[in-house]
Design goal:
By secondary structure, this protein is of the alpha+beta class. It has a domain of 105 residues: Glutaredoxin. Helix content is 44%, strand content 11%. The chain is built from seven helices and four strands; from the N terminus they run H-H-H-E-H-E-H-E-E-H-H. A four-stranded mixed sheet has the order 2-1-3-4, sandwiched between helices. A hairpin with a 2-residue loop joins strand 3 and strand 4.
Length: 157
Amino acid sequence: MGILSRIKRRLPIVGGDREPRPSEAWTPPTSTRATSPAAEPPPPPPPPRTADEVRSEIEEDVKNHPIVLYMKGSERAPQCGFSAAVVDMLQQLAVPFETRDVIADPVLRQVIKDYSDWPTLPQLYLGGEFVGGCDIVREMHEQGELKKAVEGALQGA
């Protein structure tokens, strides 16, 4: 049986000589959306935090974590090459560290720059002290100073 005769048997529009069988008749698709309960709207976002609140959070983070990196993105998904480089250096040292994503929080992004009086990101804090950005961390890593500073921060924790 050729393709044309198979089509004519299934599609009355093409064949035009018979009524469709009940099993061949078109029925509109059923939608579960109409029968399901209406979804609740998402809750409103929390009010924006003030600079003072964010500054307090930074102070707590720096005080409570021996190694904190304020960066663009996260440890698993850095959003800039400089942040990725610092993450890589810390991972090479196989030390635990905290990260904070400044892209997700524009208030944090500005307040961390004011807190450290340093205009660029990422920013690394060891043992409660600001170390610097990518270039400084890279230089320390190349000279072996980063490993000593990280070990000192972890021992003081």
